[in-house]
Design goal:
With 78 residues, the protein is of the alpha+beta class. The chain is 29% helix and 31% strand. The protein has two helices and three strands. A three-stranded antiparallel β-sheet has the order 2-1-3. The longest helix is centred in the middle third of the chain and has 14 residues.
Length: 78
Amino acid sequence: MPYFIFVVSSKESGHKSARLVNPFEKFREAKNEVKRLRSEKPLDDNQIYKINFSATETAAEQALTETREEPIAKEWEK
C-alpha cells in the first residue's frame, strides 16, 4: 500500500479538507519529502502536511478529513 502526502486545511467550522501532494511507495521517501516540504514551503496557520498509509487515495483523504469525537476525560485524568 502506498503512503500519501496531503495538505490538510482546517476551517473555523471544524470542517477539514485535504489536497494530495504526492504518493510514495516507501515510508522513508514520504517522511523525507514531508520534512523537506515543511522546511522549504511553510504553510498557513490552518494548514499542515500529513502522511497517510491507505489502500487508496480516497480512503486516505477520508481518514484525514473525518471529524473525531472529543475524548471523554475520566475523573482521575482531570
